[in-house]
Amino acid sequence: MSKKVIDETSKFLSYVLRHEPQAIGLELDTEGWGDIDALISGAARDGRQLSRELIAQVVDSNDKKRFSLSADGQRIRAVQGHSNKDVHLQLEARQPPAILYHGTATRFMESINEKGLIPGSRHHVHLSQDLETASAVGQRYGKVVILQIAAQDMQAQGFTFYQAENGVWLTEQVPVSFIKPL
Ligand code: HQG
């Protein structure tokens, strides 16, 4: 399958599995799992040709491991990034490294300096362990600023951290006092 088809399918799967399953009449359970046959038939009604092979290829080749398959191979979910209100991943709290990074754009800094980091439409604020990822995330929105987050200090103050299956760190919000531009 061409890279173009794989990339387009990955974007489509992100859209339905994170945000709008109802757009193709797909039901997700609270853990975000959707039935692959229902996904394929829902997508077909929307004029999009998927197959189990294509889906498996997207899951395997995905640079950020955005999706996972159930052990029986019948279901698929996005591992982070959700905004859908019916999905509530039961993630285990984990101890974060001392510092985590968040890449954002300069134009958001005035508001971030006032309110801290907030999740926006997603369920969590997304943080990464490495600068490269943070930089790539920030670039999507404009001129990049990398923020250092004092994650262990936050945890000591009672904030909870989670790690998605693909390594992305998640927390509900980051108050201004724990944020320092790199
Ligand atoms: C910003 C991608 C103003 C925040 C990435 C970000 C990630 C504020 C934007 C995942 C703010 C939200 C998530 C405040 C935060 N005022 N702006 N108080 N607080 N923001 O896309 O973190 O490639 O929802 O800095 O890799 O950029 O799609 O979050 O710029 O893991 O798999 O509001 O999405 O993954 O944007 O990215 P997003 P994000 P995928």
User: How many distinct helices?
Assistant: 6
The geometry reads as elongated
Question: What would you say the CATH architecture of the largest domain is?
Answer: Alpha-Beta Barrel
Number of domains: 2
Over the alpha carbons, how many angstroms does the gyration radius reach? 17 Å
Q: Given the helix and strand composition, which structural class is it? A: alpha+beta
Largest sheet: 3 strands, antiparallel
Protein architecture, described:
- This protein is an alpha+beta fold.
- It contains six helices and nine strands; from the N terminus they run αβααβββαβαβαβββ.
- The chain has two domains: 3-78, Orthogonal Bundle (Arc Repressor Mutant, subunit A); 99-181, ADP-ribosylation fold.
- It is 32% helix and 19% strand.
- The chain has a three-stranded antiparallel β-sheet. A three-stranded antiparallel β-sheet has the order 4-6-9. It has a three-stranded antiparallel β-sheet with strand order 5-8-7, with no helix packed on it.
- It is elongated and about 50 Å long.
- It starts with a helix and ends with a strand.
